[in-house]
Amino acid sequence: AEASEKENIDLSHQWPFYGDHGQAGVTTPPQRHIMFMTFDMTTPTAQALQILLARWSAAIAQLVQGAAVGTVEPSRIGSVGTDTGEAVGLDPASLTVTIGMGPSLFTDTYGLTAKCPPHLRPLAALPSDNLQPELSGGDLSLQACADDPQVAYHAIRVLARIAKSTGAAQTRWTVMGFGRASAGKDQETPRNLFGFKDGTRNLVDASEFNQHVWIKEGPAWQQSGSYQVVRKIKMNIENWDTDRVSDQNQVFGRHKLSGAPLSGTREFDTPDFHKKDTEGELVIPATAHIRLAAHENNQGVRILRRSYNYTDGLNHYGQLDAGLLFISYQNDPAHFETLQRKLGAADALNEYISHIGSGLFFVPPAAKEGSYIGAELFS
Ligand SMILES: C=CC1=C(C)c2cc3[nH]c(cc4nc(cc5[nH]c(cc1n2)c(C)c5CCC(=O)O)C(CCC(=O)O)=C4C)c(C)c3C=C
Ligand SMILES: [Fe+2]
């Protein structure tokens, strides 16, 4: 009963694709589901990339309206359908598809070296990294989020098909996620698969987005873009579930049920990182996740988190294989690195998690009506 009024989701809602600020899917309140996929280029011609970006943009503009991309059942007998059909009759479900570009795209092969956004480069190697190459990198990324998983899946399926049919790109790695694990403005804080509220102290206001998320420097076509960090983080949930809840609270520095910091009583109480108990011990332990990640302890560094829970079924021991598809947006990827360098070295959470996949992508601003994402790369 507690959450019911906030859980009323309007499946008929649409987010516009075209605009004159950032792409949808960055500061948009997180929808319930995600289908994330990366791609590698399969051709050395810049023209193929240009055609792909133009066709992707045109297709996304249709998809976000709940429309099919071309025909499902062509009138000419013997022809293949353009749209695969599984979203026919479904609502737009607030679909957003966000296009990202990896550092490996900005090479001489495509004549793009000089166009590379200043902070776009492979992420630094970070403590506790356990990255698998087959779950990392990519020349392009697509983040499809919607309140209906079939709508998100359909979008990626149609876009992957366009990539293949233009001969421009092939799939690299993918994660399907559910149960948004971060809150946007006016959203109830959801829970991650460790059972804790996730996103309590996330960025929510336009002024915070302007300060920490949107790029404000460089050529005009990069401004209002952002950097997308993606980490596939495996969570050992079976081990976690054998742990005492009092210990789990110490790991995060918050109470599991209420989400309140250990120094307070309500979810949105500001954590007091100096508070000590009667024995003189820090109430929020030195290795607690929130102490290490908080902006108060990182020279004001803040990032926008837009993560989702995921599952890969069972591992080869028959244990639940699941985790967090961590996604953050920031106007400099060094901000993520600052936090993860600290977390990777000292976070009490490290006993239960492993970063197995990683990517960094530049997210250009939205396309203006009549244009497409990344058009400025070719002028
Ligand atoms: C490098 C950035 C971060 C990674 C990687 C990360 C992984 C991760 N986090 C949780 C669960 C929680 N995180 C919470 C807070 C929090 N986490 C980060 C950054 C990363 N987390 C920040 C900046 C913050 C906010 C800190 C603050 O200012 O107080 C919380 C507490 C609730 C909240 O504020 O969101 C939880 C819970 C998991 C499970 C995880 C990897 C699997
Ligand atoms: Fe976190």
From TrEMBL:
<dbReference type="InterPro" id="IPR048327">
    <property type="entry name" value="Dyp_perox_N"/>
</dbReference>
<comment type="subunit">
    <text>Homodimer. Part of a ferrous iron transporter composed of EfeU, EfeO and EfeB.</text>
</comment>
<keyword id="KW-0408">Iron</keyword>
<dbReference type="InterPro" id="IPR006311">
    <property type="entry name" value="TAT_signal"/>
</dbReference>
<comment type="function">
    <text>Involved in the recovery of exogenous heme iron. Extracts iron from heme while preserving the protoporphyrin ring intact.</text>
</comment>
<keyword id="KW-0732">Signal</keyword>
<keyword id="KW-0456">Lyase</keyword>
<feature type="domain" description="Dyp-type peroxidase N-terminal">
    <location>
        <begin position="23"/>
        <end position="178"/>
    </location>
</feature>
<dbReference type="InterPro" id="IPR006314">
    <property type="entry name" value="Dyp_peroxidase"/>
</dbReference>
<keyword id="KW-0574">Periplasm</keyword>
<dbReference type="Pfam" id="PF20628">
    <property type="entry name" value="Dyp_perox_C"/>
</dbReference>
<dbReference type="InterPro" id="IPR048328">
    <property type="entry name" value="Dyp_perox_C"/>
</dbReference>
<comment type="similarity">
    <text>Belongs to the DyP-type peroxidase family. EfeB subfamily.</text>
</comment>
<keyword id="KW-0575">Peroxidase</keyword>
<dbReference type="Pfam" id="PF04261">
    <property type="entry name" value="Dyp_perox_N"/>
</dbReference>
<keyword id="KW-0560">Oxidoreductase</keyword>
<keyword id="KW-0479">Metal-binding</keyword>
<dbReference type="InterPro" id="IPR011008">
    <property type="entry name" value="Dimeric_a/b-barrel"/>
</dbReference>
<feature type="domain" description="Dyp-type peroxidase C-terminal">
    <location>
        <begin position="189"/>
        <end position="367"/>
    </location>
</feature>
<keyword id="KW-0349">Heme</keyword>
<protein>
    <recommendedName>
        <fullName>Deferrochelatase</fullName>
        <ecNumber>1.11.1.-</ecNumber>
    </recommendedName>
</protein>
<dbReference type="InterPro" id="IPR006313">
    <property type="entry name" value="EfeB/EfeN"/>
</dbReference>
